[in-house]
Design a protein that fits this description.
alpha/beta, Rossmann fold, seven-stranded parallel sheet, 9 helices
Length: 257
């Protein structure tokens, strides 16, 4: 297939839903072979794979829990075994758990930090080891959040995980740059995804949010996936260590209600 990512192989964690699915579909449309990671939703992953193959693309589905280091390593190994290489890693899988700070449990804290920070750390490590052994360049794209910088009361663990991801990205840009491996963050604001169904159906919460967004609307999965495609392409070869905010201006106009 032709396209900006023709001949590339991309691993997308959490690729069976939401933004991850959008990234998978955009990458496949641009010619990449895609590795669709999922934790529990095998049916959705298989449906996306079938859709891609029906359009002439190549895809595999890989079950892995990125909160477990062994699964992170197995995910990367499976990609290499299937396609002979992997050029692009998108650390998209993420979770959040709302709670008053004083009520946060150790189990909930561990869940959020393990998926949102430990997962990208060790999946990237496994990916980079493969690249270095093969002497290949690579791209890492982390799906962060505006909350790597913007406060989010009652989601302290989530903010801590995304703030850690911001610093990890900056650090690895310096360490991996000499190896021709780039790493960047995408920081979405309010995006229309299944996880936000409750918000979309709650006018009392939705209207104040939209007033905080200068563009007056929530973002779409395609908005985010388009940016992820650019960062994976040759057009972004000189970009590393940066966070790209995609939020309709929310972070510049946010007021806590």
């Amino acid at each position: 297939m032709s396209g900006r990512l023709a001949g590339k192989v991309a691993i997308v964690t959490g690729g069976s839903s939401g933004i991850g699915t959008g990234v998978v579909e955009h990458y496949a449309a641009e010619g990449a072979s895609v590795v669709i990671n999922y934790r529990g939703d095998e049916k959705s992953a298989d449906e996306i794979k079938s859709k891609i193959e029906g359009n002439g693309g190549k895809a595999i589905c890989v079950q892995a829990d990125v909160a477990k280091v062994a699964d992170c390593q197995a995910l990367v190994d499976t990609a290499w075994n299937a396609f002979g290489k992997a050029d692009i890693l998108v650390n998209n899988a993420g979770v959040e758990k709302g709670s008053e700070f004083v009520d946060v449990s150790e189990a909930d804290y561990d869940m959020v930090l393990d998926v949102n920070l430990k997962g990208p750390f060790f999946t990237t490590q496994a990916f980079v080891k493969r690249l270095l052994t093969a002497n290949l360049p690579g791209r890492v794209i982390n799906m962060s959040s505006v909350h790597e910088d913007m406060v989010f009361p009652h989601f302290a663990s989530y903010c801590a995980s995304k703030g850690g991801l911001r610093m990890l990205t900056r650090d690895l840009a310096v360490e991996l740059g000499p190896k021709n491996i780039t790493i960047n963050n995408i920081a979405p604001g309010a995006i229309i995804t299944p996880i936000n169904t409750g918000l979309l159906n709650d006018k009392a919460k939705l209207d104040p949010l939209l007033r905080n967004i200068p563009l007056g609307r929530m973002g779409t999965v395609d908005d985010v996936a388009g940016l992820a495609t650019f960062l994976a392409s040759d057009e972004a070869a000189y970009i590393t260590g940066s966070t790209f905010i995609i939020d309709g201006g929310l972070i510049r106009n946010y007021h806590e209600q």
